[in-house]
Amino acid sequence: MRAVIQRVNSGSVVVEKKIVGSISKGFVVLLGVNEKDTEADVLYMVDKIVNLRIFEDDNEKMNLSLLDIEGELLVVSQFTLYGDCRKGRRPNFMSAARPEKAEELYNEFVKKCREMGVKTETGTFQAYMKVNIENDGPVTVIVDSEKII
Q1: What Rg do the C-alpha atoms of the chain give, in angstroms?
Q2: Residue 45's pLDDT is what?
Q3: Which of 59, 77, 86, 119 has the most beta carbons within 10 angstroms of its beta carbon?
Q4: Can you give the three-state secondary structure of the chain, one letter per residue?
Q5: Domain boundaries along the sequence of the chain
Q6: Rounded to whole angstroms, how far apart are CA atoms 119 and 133?
Q7: Fold of 2-147
Q8: Catalytic residues, which ones?
Q9: What's the pTM value of the predicted model, to 2 decimals?
């Protein structure tokens, strides 16, 4: 799994002119699923993301996690994170999981985040979405379960 995580003051997802998910302070997570991903990748990503210390403490040091600040998550499926642009001019998405598998692992990721007590909103899987983000910092990091070692 691969995630682009943006620290935000707020975020929302609009599908067909209707807000389907919105959060205040927390993370917008653009989440891609690889064809090789398993539940172990989901567990790694959930633990890494909710405990990622990129919120500032009283000394203005990135020392606090999403759990520490009682922040919220907006999780948006994004298969394009697995676009391989090394050859040609059009990305190759062959390593992205098929929609059935991707949706299953995406939903499992959301479920596990909620089980950790984090308010978690989502977009709509496989829909055309408009994602509104008020970036805080900006602070943007990438987490990839393939790069565990």
Answers
A1: 15
A2: 98
A3: 77
A4: CEEEEEEEEEEEEEECCEEEEEECCEEEEEEECECCCCHHHHHHHHHHHHCCCCEECCCCCEEECHHHHCCEEEEEECHHHHCECCCCCCCECCCECCHHHHHHHHHHHHHHHHHCCCCEEECCCCCCCEEEEEEEEEEEEEEEHHHCC
A5: 2-147
A6: 17
A7: D-tyrosyl-trna(Tyr) Deacylase; Chain: A; (3.50.80)
A8: 80
A9: 0.94
